[in-house]
Amino acid sequence: MKTNFDFLMPSVNFFGPGVIEKIGDRTKMLNITKPLIVTDTFLEGVPDGPVAQTLASLDQAGVQYSIFNGVEPNPKVRNIQAGKAQYLADGCDGLITVGGGSAHDCGKGIGILLTNGDDITKLAGIETLENALPPLLAVNTTAGTGSELTRHCVITNEETHLKFVVVSWRNIPLVSFNDPMLMLDVPAKLTAATGMDAFVQAIEPYVSTNRNAITDGQCLQAIKLIEESLREAVANGHNIEARTKMCEAEMLAGMAFNNADLGYVHAMAHQLGGQYDAPHGVCCALLLPIVEEFNIVACPDRFAELARAMGENTDALSTRDAAELAIKGMRQMAADVGIPTSIKAIGAKPADFEMMAENALKDGNAFSNPRKATKAEIVALFQKAYDAE
Ligand code: NAD
Fold first, then answer.
1. ipTM of the predicted assembly exceeds 0.95
2. Domain end: 154, 183, 212, which one?
3. Centre of ligand 1 from the C-alpha of residue 6, in Å
4. Does 144 sit in the ligand 1 pocket, CB within 6 Å?
5. Atom 43 of ligand 1 has which residue's CA nearest to it?
6. How far apart are CA 121 and CA 104, in angstroms?
7. Residue from 142, 181, 191, 363 to probe ligand 1 pocket by mutation (most atoms less than 8 Å from CB)
8. Pairing mode, strands 152-157 and 162-167
9. Nearest ligand 1 atom, CA 185
10. In what residue span(s) does the Alcohol dehydrogenase iron-type/glycerol dehydrogenase GldA domain sit (predicted)?
11. 219 and 86, same structural domain?
12. Structural domain range at position 367
């Protein structure tokens, strides 16, 4: 537990139904005259969807823009290079990301290339950025990664199939927008995957070696909200109360891991995402119970607390038995929202485990895991996630 820490998040975070209407005026207040809208072709084409509503607000405020629709899931180096080229060709002076984690990370990556040099792969690591990014506003449409408010930029090197992270306070967007009405039409499968990502992002910082008293509170409240709403949001996407609670939870979890960091679930999930181009939330959900079972011995009391946040009654139980209930709760949540049980479902191959274990231990998220693992132990965790039924 840290008692001396910086606490980082955007200076302004608009939250609630309808807040997207404020983006035009806020862009003007930041003296941005022509933002590059960073999104994908699907979101660009949704009638009255998140991009359309963003553009309507910009039009109303008299702000011009250029639309870059080249974001791919697990955004690639080629996406940010193409975005940078368009930014310069169209004379842009700011960035507005519209989408989930992929759009926000792509926008951050474009900003990094514009001000910190052409080779982003050399900037992987912590606080490697020397220069400020252009002003960045993030409109979030999934609940979710928290990337609209974090210092993390996760990019996939398509040549090596490695996902890497540039972690810097300079990546934090100036303004974030979390409007749950933009999330009503997220399909059930995507709601489940992104919601499980938020769940993991509430759990890993709670047992992280870099946790603090503020992030502890955020994690527990996020877990409570996810328990109350994720199943409902998956079952009925138009349940506004469930969507709002998931949006609150994703924001809390994002703030928590932005400041307390993550652990081996994310370090290993990045290997699965980079190698097999699989959805990030699904990768995290598949690994969560396996990794946390391994972590219990490091802090059983923390896991017992997590079980209580999940609504379990632990009164008559030993700390160890209460901790086990948290793992059961993680498995139950994943099953209820339709996540498969084995990493076979995303095409994982045992022949890759050695290489992925080596890279996982170098991932920026590995260092705050509560229990230190050897490479052989990480290989065994991948194998366990493969054999899970
Ligand atoms: P995503 O951004 O990749 O989006 C997945 C799909 O959902 C896309 O095809 C998109 O068009 C669609 N979509 C998005 N919003 C929608 C909406 N409102 N309605 C319908 N469809 C919609 O998914 P994600 O899970 O939000 O982001 C995953 C990426 O974020 C991964 O690359 C992951 O590594 C990264 N990530 C980043 C951070 C960070 O702090 N930077 C944290 C966690 C994960």
1. yes
2. 183
3. 27
4. yes
5. 145
6. 18
7. 142
8. antiparallel
9. 19
10. 10-180
11. no
12. 188-387
